[in-house]
Amino acid sequence: MTTIALVQALQQQKAFFATGKTRELAFRKDMLQRLATAIAQEEESITQALAEDFHKPAFETYATEIAIVLSEIKFILKHLDKWARPRKVKSSFLNFPSKDYIYPEPYGISLVIGAWNYPFQLTLSPLIGSMAAGGCTFLKPSELTPATSQVIAHLVEKHFPAEYVMVVQGGPEVSQELLQLSFDKIFFTGSTAVGKIVAQAAASQLIPVTLELGGKSPCLVDETANLEVAAQRIVWGKYLNAGQTCVAPDYVLVQESVQRPLLEQLQKTITQFYTASPQQSQDYARIINDRHFERLQKLLQASKVYFGGQTDASQRYMAPTLLTDVTWEQPIMQEEIFGPLLPVLPFKTLPEALQQITQREKPLALYFFSNDQAAQEMVLAQTSSGGACINDTISHLANPHLPFGGVGTSGQGNYHGKASFLAFSHQKSVLKKPFWPEVNLRYPPYQDKLNWMKKAFDWL
Ligand code: NAD
Asked: Where is the catalytic site (predicted)?
């Protein structure tokens, strides 16, 4: 689309928003329901598109792209009446007599920029928040998953007018153009590097922004953990989507005394999950493109392989791989891996491991496997991360009661469930007064009213 066409499309959405239609609760619910029906109807084409884009297994597509979005709609529909209505709060004695409220109102027209690794969910889930809040939306899905982006565009065009939701396809240049326009809210999912570009563009127009970014999410295992169960949960979280998950365990820090048995369990589990030749497995995805494949290949070549390590560039296949003897100075420990390479590093004491984590940027997720409750609380208290699981990986993001988002360089703001509604809403503070009685303590001439005012503050 040309810049002029984008500007016109935005004006159309602004005009539609100004009619007030999108703020009507019945309209919002109707649109959410329509979206759910459309997704259910398109299940087959969504699954095919993701398989075409990077061999995503049908099971993973259903669980992590379709079901998660449908359950989000269901959850929001169940609670929207309550969230959307004005909420009465206590009034201040100083304003007597008054009644005070919080009125949630939609920001207006939102720009959602999505990432490729869960291309359907990461674009549609923010859309649900924007619809629930009562706004209009521009969606810019990732250019790296063209088949899925096409399905999203088709689905939106078929079921929604462009003045309400529209899809703009393209890469960074299109994002850059969109970022010049005057949206009321920007919701970005992607890398920390691009997140900074988006934040700067938003700041130049003072547009509120949510940034869902990445980072190196650590996974700690101490000697009290059940290693067999820990290995299953780590292997699942790491190799799901071939490691291309923002909250995948990036690396494992394991207590020295159990490093060897954990490695054995991890190896055994990989074979159980993906057979002895994962390349033949229908349950294992591929690397998204050649650029990422080559990046991962370089990291792999500079590392010591404990298990796995096979690659096939023609299919962008990289085996589920365990790496040992890794140091913090190696490139693999300097950047988010975002692929099926799992460095396993030993630690002697928990404080030593925590020091390694807290010296670095705040991660999007942190995982701790331990049977020691005091140690669990210590890890939660002494580290900062977007989210965390004790004795599991990834699963916290599937609970709509838990806000999902990063902290520091892993992001700002959050979404899912009520947090999605709030991400696209302004909380307007409203004070209502009757004309009578009129308390004139605050008006000039002040004369001896200062003493009264001081007494009033003392009573508070
Ligand atoms: P990316 O930052 O390269 O791209 C994300 C989006 O930004 C795409 O739509 C892309 O077209 C656009 N973009 C790219 N360069 C741009 C530029 N210079 N200016 C404006 N827009 C630009 O990220 P990606 O490779 O698609 O996704 C992987 C990253 O996203 C990883 O770091 C991962 O951890 C993170 N991620 C985070 C979450 C989360 O929920 N926190 C979820 C998925 C992925």
From this structure: 212
C-alpha distances in angstroms, 36 versus 41, 156, 164, 210, 339? Answer: 9, 12, 16, 24, 31
Atom nearest to 215 CA in ligand 1? 34
In CATH, which superfamily holds the domain spanning 218-405?
Aldehyde Dehydrogenase; Chain A, domain 2 (3.40.309.10)
CA-to-CA distance for 47 and 49, rounded, in angstroms? 6
The CATH code belonging to domain 3-213+411-427 is 3.40.605.10
Residue closest to 56 by CA, chosen among 239, 192, 189, 208: 239
Instruction: Select which of 43, 212, 223, 335 is catalytic.
Output: 212
Atom of ligand 1 nearest to the CA of 246: 34
Residue intervals of the chain classified under CATH 3.40.605.10 are 3-213+411-427
Ligand 1 within 6 A of 175 CB?
yes
Rounded to the nearest angstrom, the distance between the alpha carbon of 172 and the centre of ligand 1 is 10
Ligand 1 center to 378 CA (angstroms) = 33
Dist. CA 220–CA 208, nearest whole Å:
35
d(CA 148, CA 145): 6
Q: Is 65 a catalytic residue?
A: no
pTM: 0.96
Q: Per this entry, what is the length of the chain?
A: 460
**Per-residue model confidence as pLDDT tens for the chain (460 residues):** 899 999 999 999 999 999 999 999 999 999 999 999 999 999 999 999 999 999 999 999 999 999 999 999 999 999 999 999 999 999 998 899 999 999 999 999 999 999 999 999 999 999 999 999 999 999 999 999 999 999 999 999 999 999 999 999 999 999 999 999 999 999 999 999 999 999 999 999 999 999 999 999 999 999 999 999 999 999 999 999 999 999 999 999 999 999 999 999 999 999 999 999 999 999 999 999 999 999 999 999 999 999 999 999 999 999 999 999 999 999 999 999 999 999 999 999 999 999 999 999 999 999 999 999 999 999 999 999 999 999 999 999 999 999 999 999 999 999 999 999 999 999 999 999 999 999 888 899 998 889 888 888 887 7
| 114 Cα–ligand 1 center, Å | 7
| 350-358 and 373-382 helices, crossing angle to 10° | 20
